[in-house]
Structures are given as C-alpha cells and as structure tokens.
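Exam revision sheet. Question 4 asks you to relate a sequence to its structure. Input first:
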Amino acid sequence: MPLSQKSLDFLFENRLHDSREWFVAHQDEYRALVKQPMEELSAALGPLLLRIDKNLSIEPAVGKTISRIRRDTRFTRDKTLYRDNLWIVYRRREAGGYPPPCLYFEVFSDGRFRYGCGYYYVAPVYMETLRGRVLAGAPSWQAAQQALERAQGFALMGERYKRPHYPDADPVRRSWLELREISVSAGDSDAGLLFSNQLAEAVAERLGQIAPVYDFLLETAQATPAPAGRR
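Answer key, structure tokens:
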C-alpha cells in the first residue's frame, strides 16, 4: 500500500504527543500506516536505483535503508522523542576508505517530500578533495555540473562560508567551492504523486537525471583519505 494522508496524520499526531506510552498504544497504526508503506516504497525504489550504482545496499527494513521513527537523544540537547519526518537512504557498504555518498528520499508530515544525493555530514578533508577536483576541472565534475544544469528543480545544498573564500573563481565553480558540506536535492508537495503507486518510478527517474553528480561525489570519496580510526 502507498503512503496516504493517514500516514502523514500519524506522523504529526505521534510527534505532537511525543510520548512512548502513546506510541506503544498505537503501534498497530504505525505498522499499517507508516512502516509497511515505507518498506514497500523502499522495496520498489531500491532495485531501480541499482541502475545508478549496482553496489548499493537496498534492504527494505527499518534500521537498514529506512530511518527509525524514534530519535537518538543521547548526544543532543533536543530531547524530542519522535520525528515527524522519515527517510529512505541507499548507500554502498563502506570499504575502508572515505564513507560514500547516499541517494535518498524523505517525507514530512506536512506533505512535503524531497530526494537527492550527497551527505548529511561531511568532513573538511572530503571538501578539500572536492574543491581540488573542481578547480582542476575534472571531467566527472564537468559531467556533474552539466547534469545539474539540465535537471530541473535540483539545487546544490549545504552550509556555505560566511565570507567568500574563492572570490576570483567563476560563478559556476564558486557555487561548489564555497560549500562547507554538500548535497543535491529537489523538493515536491504533489499529494497525487506522493500517495500513488507511481512514486518509486518517478523518484528513480528524477534521481537518474543527477546520476553524474552522484558519480562525482563517489569518485571524490574514493580519492579522499579515510578519516582517522576508519583505516
């Protein structure tokens, strides 16, 4: 079964109560309205994304490709127990180098959803490697930029330097060089698509348009030294 307005309503109400007791009392609704549709979406979307990277891990399970609805509050000041958004993430298994980028889909309780590729967090050493490849005009970067220009709705995302670090670079390169972290994302709020059985195919088609961006980010990861402790 696809996601529905009831799925979003559950996310909203569960976050509003933010209570383990309330969640436990409504676990059957969670399984039917949220968990099962997300598992089915992951199962449908994953195989399609193997066209972009045949080495992705695509197991359609919570804790694997699907985020948990309960937040980990051990290391944050925000002690909110439950989230009102969920996501599906596909990435390669780490092979000892720098962690690879991911392809993702995310949905919010207000009906917004987005999809793209990149990193939630990325270390400075990765961005230094990326900048070097942009400045050198690496062919994979040129292909990524061309794909980004063709793919409507996608944009480079991430925190930028407050003060320009590359004022003399051309505008296209600067859009990459001034980033402190990186992802490429597109958003939508089309309920007709979100609640349909065509969602996986539509998202996979759109992500296919930015496959060269994913390839560039992956090649950059492979050229970046592994973080300390991961060797």
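Marking note for examiners. The mean pLDDT is 95.
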